[in-house]
Design brief:
The protein is an alpha/beta fold. The protein has two domains: about 160 residues, 3-Layer(aba) Sandwich (Rossmann fold), CATH 3.40.50; about 160 residues, Dehydroquinate synthase-like - alpha domain (Dehydroquinate synthase-like, alpha domain), CATH 1.20.1090.10. The chain contains 13 helices and twelve strands. A seven-stranded mixed β-sheet has the order 1-2-9-6-5-3-4. A hairpin with a 2-residue loop joins β11 and β12. It is globular.
Length: about 350
């Protein structure tokens, strides 16, 4: 078991990698607790939850809505959860996002902790204090930054994930290797079979490496004013695909990483050899599926992207594997490149 600490302005968040998720029962108050999960997670683990009220949401992106937050808040009121209350989330990225957002706004903020049950959540969503819901087809546009007291990443829970959910998380793990921790990328390259077999020791090591990297970034830039932007590699185009095509997050981000890698190649930031190495690894896990979105739809998503400032956007390029590069470019330039790769001209 490894403990990783994120320290930001006046807050401390502890992430435990490899700790059995059941010990969460020892880390929460004796009363005033509500558990938030989804129906899939509850069916697998619900009989081992601590003995507190359980609020269930529908699995998937449709639960990342303000109406869901409102409904959950009403249930908390019915349970007489007050400002001393505590929310324990048990689930993947959507559950952790919803629970974290609810905890940050209910009665102007109550305490929360997360049990992260998916690979996507363990390496990305549950670490770093980002909480958000979607607005229409625009992803994560209503949200805030607020750190949970603790996050438990029990890699034994990954054994029960459906294959597509597991691979979706693997895409975010590969992303972390591309933008900052070359060792993650190399370990995945060298252990494709073991990763496909969900080797628990290997996964614990990779999750810990990913969390350590993200903790370092978030501790330096909690509210994404500069350095934390690198975590959005592949997300500008990826979010457009995810919402327009209703794809799983990791598969959409994988396609977005292809776009960002090709853009980096066109700019002369990387060689064709680096590009091929990245694409080859994504293809070995069958993460790339060609997706076409009408130009006007892509532009609409980008114009609502949180990384946009006026007519420009903070775009994440790479200068090599493990070497991210933040550049401010005109949205029109991004769209011109999109048109170019789709038409082949």
């Amino acid at each position: 078991m490894e403990k990783i600490v994120i320290t930001t302005s006046g807050t401390l968040s502890e992430i435990f990698v490899g700790k059995p998720w059941e010990v969460a029962a020892e880390m929460i108050p004796e009363r005033g607790v509500a558990i938030i999960t989804d129906e899939n997670v509850y069916n697998i683990y619900g009989n081992r939850f601590p003995l507190f009220p359980v609020l269930k949401i529908v699995p998937g992106e449709e639960s990342k809505r303000l109406k869901v937050i409102e409904n959950l808040a009403e249930q908390l009121l019915d349970l007489e959860i007050d400002r001393s209350g505590f929310i324990l989330a048990v689930g993947g990225g959507v559950v952790c996002d919803v629970a974290g957002f609810l905890a940050s706004v209910y009665m102007r903020g109550i305490r929360c902790g997360l049990v992260s049950s998916s690979l996507l959540s363990q390496v990305d969503a549950s670490t770093g204090g980002k909480n958000a819901v979607n607005l229409g087809e625009i992803k994560n546009v209503i949200g805030n930054f607020r750190q949970p007291e603790f996050v438990i990443c029990d890699t034994a829970m990954l054994q029960t994930l459906p294959e597509q959910e597991y691979l979706s998380g693997l895409a975010e793990l590969i992303k972390t290797g591309i933008i900052g921790d070359l060792s993650i990328f190399e370990i995945i390259e060298q252990n494709v079979t073991a990763i496909n077999n969900r080797d628990s020791i290997l996964l614990s090591d990779l999750v810990a490496r990913s969390v350590r990297f993200k903790a370092k970034v978030v501790s330096k830039d909690e509210k994404e004013n500069n350095l934390r932007r690198i975590l959005n590699f592949g997300h500008t185009f990826g979010h457009a695909i995810e919402m327009h095509k209703s794809m799983k997050h990791g598969f959409a981000v994988a396609q977005g990483m292809l776009f960002a890698t090709d853009f980096s190649l066109q700019k002369g930031f990387i060689s064709s050899g680096v590009r091929e190495r990245i694409i080859n690894l994504l293809q070995r896990f069958k993460l790339l599926e060609e997706q076409y979105i009408p130009v006007n739809q892509v532009e609409q998503h980008i114009m609502h992207d949180k990384k946009r400032t006026g007519t420009d956007i903070h775009f994440i390029f790479i200068e090599g594997i493990g070497k991210p590069l933040i550049r401010t470019v005109p949205v029109s330039e991004v769209m011109d490149f999109y048109r170019q790769i789709k038409t082949g001209k």
